[in-house]
Design goal:
By secondary structure, the protein is an alpha/beta fold. Helix content is about 50%, strand content about 15%. Helix 10 links the parallel strand 6 and strand 7. Helix 1 packs across helix 2 and helix 1 packs antiparallel against helix 5. The longest helix is centred in the first third of the chain and has 12 residues. It starts with 6 loop residues before the first strand and ends in a 6-residue tail after the last helix.
Length: about 210
């Protein structure tokens, strides 16, 4: 056990859960007849970030995506939310590691996400939300990684300080930002690599 570390934060998408943006784009294409590449090129990334910061309602997010499509657009709201659901895949093997850690550490989720995915999908259908002590979601705090302020809020919510926190994420820029605030960072690439890195830091011992 690493006595320096008291709290471990996990990202969700790409770390604990497979994500499939291509499935979402394909379903939108199938429903509208718009080529998948055009949908991808028109996707409103800036608006999506505002949605993840809690600045748009679910309805406003749907309308924002529909507005970017070639007009007139026949996209139905029910079809849109079905496409949005398809973004989430199955739990990853790394959930096994999460189980090993929660006996000795305070384990939290720290994710850029949206209320629809959390409330309608993740909370009721997956095991990992039941294995953590708390959550810091972008839409709850009005901030997204890699904004350094979100890491400071996360440490505070967990009753810790950044220097005693470890953060696991699949996006390098998010790790760099966490390390800039004092966190120990592990850039997730695979289950075996994460396991190896956790042993090397002394967080996992058996």
């Amino acid at each position: 056990m690493n006595k320096q570390v008291s709290t471990i934060f996990f990202d969700i998408g790409g770390v604990l859960l497979n994500i499939h943006p291509e499935r979402t784009l394909q379903h939108l294409s199938d429903c509208t007849g718009v080529h998948i590449d055009e949908i991808k090129n028109r996707f409103p990334i800036d608006v999506h970030q505002e949605y993840e910061k809690g600045n748009l309602s679910n309805k406003e997010w749907f309308l924002a995506v529909k507005k970017t499509m070639p007009q007139p657009c026949s996209l139905k709201e029910s079809d849109f939310w079905q496409a949005w659901k398809l973004l989430l895949g199955q739990e990853k093997n790394s959930v096994k590691i999460l189980k090993k850690l929660n006996d000795n550490y305070s384990v939290w989720l720290l994710s850029n996400t949206n209320p629809c995915h959390i409330q309608d999908e993740i909370d009721g259908k997956f095991e990992f939300p039941n294995l953590v002590d708390g959550t810091v979601y972008s839409f709850d705090v009005g901030l997204r990684k890699p904004d350094e302020a979100i890491y400071k809020i996360a440490a505070s919510r967990a009753g810790s300080i950044p220097e005693r926190c470890l953060f696991i994420d699949d996006q390098r820029e998010n790790i760099v930002a966490a390390e800039n605030t004092g966190f120990i960072g592990i850039h997730f690439k695979s289950y075996k690599q994460l396991q190896r890195d956790l042993y090397q830091t002394g967080v996992l011992t058996n």
